[in-house]
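Researcher: Here's the sequence for the chain we discussed earlier.
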Amino acid sequence: MFKKNLKRIFEFLLLAFIVIQFFRPVKNQAKGISNNDISKLYAVPEEVNTILKTSCYDCHSNNTVYPWYAEIQPAAWWLTNHVNEGKDELNFSEFAAYRIGRQYKKLDKLNKEIEEGEMPLDSYLWIHKNAKLSKQQKLTLTTWANSIRDSIKSNYPADSLIKKKK
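Model: Thanks. This is the structure I predict for it:
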């Protein structure tokens, strides 16, 4: 009786696994560079661009490079959710569309998270070993982000950098 029930449970789980393979999320892969890409608004040196592509863009742009397991459900759903959360937090492909105060705050937060070792996420680094930032890469990235943040601060009044309460 136990073996028969166990076999039915296994068959059901196998069938469910096969069925969910037909429900695939839309992939985060845009054609070309967005008109709102950060590089359209601010200079992005090649060294910084390489760091961003290797360590940030999979979750924080409109162009994710998917690993092999993204073809298997439910892993693809988990990845899609993770990418959507990352883009909601910061999307380099849409950065120029942010209001100036939001740009300033996003750059400030980027610096803090890199300096504190919060980004890239440990879970991302398990598979993407090359995305781990060296001290020099962290310095390069934060120096670049600070220079943009400082230029925003010097070119806009302080009250435009503060979110107004309604």
